[in-house]
Amino acid sequence: xxxxxxxxxxxxxxxxxxxxxxxxxxxxxxxxxxxxxxxxxxxxxxxxxxxxxxxxxxxxxxxxxxxxxxxxxxxxxxxxxxxxxxxxxxxxxxxxxxxxxxxxxxxxxxxxxxxxxxxxxxxxxxxxxxxxxxxxxxxxxxxxxxxxxxxxxxxxxxxxxxxxxxxxxxxxxxxxxxxxxxxxxxxxxxxxxxxxxxxxxxxxxxxxxxxxxxxxxxxxxxxxxxxxxxxxxxxxxxxxxxxxxxxxxxxxxxxxxxxxxxxxxxxxxxxxxxxxxxxxxxxxxxxxxxxxxxxxxxxxxxxxxxxxxxxxxxxxxxxxxxxxxxxxxxxxxxxxxxxxxxxxxxxxxxxxxxxxxxxxxxxxxxxxxxxxxxxxxxxxxxxxxxxxxxxxxxxxxxxxxxxxxxxxxxxxxxxxxxxxxxxxxxxxxxxxxxxxxxxxxxxx
Amino acid sequence: xxxxxxxxxxxxxxxxxxxxxxxxxxxxxxxxxxxxxxxxxxxxxxxxxxxxxxxxxxxxxxxxxxxxxxxxxxxxxxxxxxxxxxxxxxxxxxxxxxxxxxxxxxxxxxxxxx
Lengths: 444, 114
Fold this sequence. Notes:
A: 1% strand, B: 114 residues, 4-stranded antiparallel beta sheet, elongated
């Protein structure tokens, strides 16, 4: 994910390009075919997470909402990709404008200026921009779980478009662009390897705000959402785990030692999360459920996302275990807050990502702390880094909450966000899509 | 004793169920059904209009004692009829006399077993 030191290279590269008028500008780094091959793979793996998410969410809702819910994920693939190549990449990875609110670089408009660009790590910039684009797709798609089964499709599309532009892009710029202010916070920056704050905290907080704004489903909390197809949900969780290797290990934007480190802890944390959840369930309820196991996988994957670049496998076990427990407790107690977060976006992504972004400081690799100390002129303690992490998390939470609320308000003016009672009873599939997910199966 | 079978539109299931619960009729069996009546329903499939030869419906079976027949039927009609004068496709209610009801757990028979 890190873009440190590359930005200057591109700008320099562009200057040469335009001055010489030569398409094959000299002085560009050579393509590193190993790194490029892995980044191409990672790009595809992250995209695989979106059908994975569609299946995960789709299987959990009522039969009459299965297509509408899967469509939330797929619609993001369409809408966010178009937005990404027009403004997204530029807003995320261009130079600071408007006091650093987001970035801008007109060469990135429709990616027209990067046609022949090769980045310093030997990876064509097309690959990097497409890899990053997948993150911009999955983040709004994650939010959809919080208000599943009760929103208008049209309003959802307006919402993700505005949210992507005004929440995701600025956050991504702050955390990952070389001149982003969170990237430069403290001695060596706020640590967010693959998107704990940018993707998971932002999606979860937006989901929480939206779920409260839109209000609960009819007759909540006296409803039992029986998954229409748990088998599909399990397959979706499997795809998410596989795709997450691209998400985390690809975030090294190389094919190197740091890639391997991220890959190892991703596997370990997911496993620890899954085991922790079924242990808690067995002790608490007496049965280890399949939905519990896969929820634990997700909690483990989310908690390691910010930390994958800086911790070792023992830490992945500890983080995965505690994030999963924290999520389990929240999810089983959320009725206290009368919160209808339909598919537990905040309960899993929010809780685990906050645990990860903050508690990773106790497990940071010595070499990273040494670099930070060097950058700070001699000394940098984990407590100082804890401060940096906490500030980054609080900024992500408060910016997302306020901006999301404004967007919800605006969208609700354009078209009513909440499905009417009648529409909710008929189901999203018939009302918004005119289709049915299954033939004669599943009375629900 | 009567067996009331209602064939209703899928989208009315929640409303009918809630109306029945309000009328204190809580013991019901629900299944998906498909069939064809007077309703001609167009569907769009890949841009083309099609008329499916069977329409998806929901079937509700309720066994009641005689004095509850009207209550049940009224609740179903009120909740399953589309707004205004109703629409073709709102469904039908069939009522048959029920010879015997037996509760498996206790072996009770007749009205007490309903």
